[in-house]
Amino acid sequence: MALLFSSKTDDAGRWKTALARVLPDLAFRVWPDDVGDAADIEYALVWGPKRGALKAFPNLKAIFSLGAGVDHLMGDRDLPDGVPVVRLVDPALTVGMSEYVLYWVLHFHRRMGDYVRYSRKAKWKKLPQVVPRQRRVGIMGLGVIGSDAARKLKALDFDVVGWTRGHRNVSGVPTFEGRRGFEDFLARSEIVVCLLPLTPETTGILNARAFARMPEGAVVVNAARGGHVIDDDLLAALDSGHLKAAVLDVFHTEPLPAEHPFWGHPKITVTPHVASLTVPETAAKSIADNIRRMRKGQPPEPIVDPKKGY
Ligand code: NDP
Ligand code: OXD
User: Fold this and answer.
1) C-alpha to C-alpha distances, 28 to 3, 22, 36, 58, 70, nearest whole angstrom
2) Ligand 1 pocket check: which of 9, 86, 103, 145 to mutate, most ligand atoms within 8 Å of Cβ?
3) pLDDT tens profile 160-199
4) Among this protein's residues, is 273 annotated catalytic?
5) CA 63, CA 88: separation in Å to the nearest integer?
6) Most buried of 127, 255, 287, 306 (most Cβ within 10 A)?
7) How are strands ordered across the β-sheet holding 159-164?
8) Whole-model pTM above 0.85?
9) Residue to mutate (ligand 2; options 47, 95, 276, 287; most atoms within 8 A of CB)
10) Using CA positions, which residue lies closest to atom 5 of ligand 2?
């Protein structure tokens, strides 16, 4: 009985130690050099595995994503049939994402960027202060992460709403649903935070039309996936003055290429896909809990719906 680890970016050694602490009887193998007997592999823990590679394991019971997002897997048409793909839900990952969202919402709400600029010029200038109840924040995606961020913004008294596919009940957070709700959602949101999964439906959703619907001076924070944004449309919306600023953690190509116009753009802040990092020492518990569930004959959770892509 073994787990196969495959990732170019996550630390195999740290994961091995973290999993050994919570599941000492589980053998840890690493793709591609330490796979051992393919028949031993029951679980895969992966980030962007080589396409088709997971088909080689006849006894594979579950594919665990090393992150909350599963777009790195869903593009693989050669995933083994009938093996569930399981998203990572780790409270520490969620908290990190909410920290990132709250940090940037507070930054723009309190106009800290302006004060940093004034400070550099030795300029003593007070700006009008808006109460959070009058600051309209819109969260795209009220899943595990979006609902946590929305609840925390609500607790700070922001006027926060969410946008989802179907109805979601997040206490005190009104939701807009589906394509039709999207237009109204955008029109009322001064700070738009994208926390959607990347699927065929959400690819390119932050485009010229969406930016035009946002109110003049709106701010975009994308902590989801680079594929949600049409880069040229974002640049045009910022350069025309319609949007005030964008904070981007994720990109079509990562690392963001040195020549990309996002680097150094006066209205864009780039962070290197760090909105929240998967920490093996906490996330191992979620994997172990799911393996224990499966050993008892229960399904792991949450299983990705291949039709929805998340
Ligand atoms: P969930 O699957 O829990 O939630 C997804 C949410 O998006 C749901 O509310 C869902 O709606 C909504 N949604 C999906 N498709 C659509 C659509 N077509 N129209 C409207 N709403 C839609 O995901 P998580 O909250 O766990 O994670 C969200 C994403 O955050 C990940 O997929 C990943 O890309 C990103 N992420 C980024 C990190 C970083 O460091 N930058 C770290 C962790 C995650 P409904 O409720 O109706 O199903
Ligand atoms: C994730 C990520 O999906 O880190 O967890 O992007």
Assistant:
1) 5, 13, 10, 17, 22
2) 145
3) 999 999 888 898 899 999 999 999 999 999 999 999 999 9
4) yes
5) 11
6) 287
7) 175-177, 159-164, 136-140, 191-194, 218-222, 243-248, 268-270
8) yes
9) 276
10) 67
Residue 22 tokens read as: 């919570």
Distance of alpha carbon 41 from alpha carbon 56, whole angstroms: 10
DSSP-assigned letter for residue 206: B
The CA distance from 237 to 250, in Å, is 18
Other CB atoms within 10 A of residue 33 CB: 6
Strands (E), 80-239: 85-86, 136-140, 159-164, 175-177, 191-194, 218-222
CA distance 272 to 170: 30
- Does the active-site annotation cover 110? no
Tokens found for residue 34: 């330490």
Instruction: Round to whole Å and give the CA distance between 64 and 61.
Output: 10
Beta-bridged to residue 186, according to DSSP, are: none
Q: What is the CA radius of gyration of the chain?
A: 21
pLDDT digits (tens, 9 = 90+) for 217-276: 999 999 999 999 999 999 999 999 999 999 999 999 999 999 999 999 999 999 999 999
CA 48 to chain centre: 15
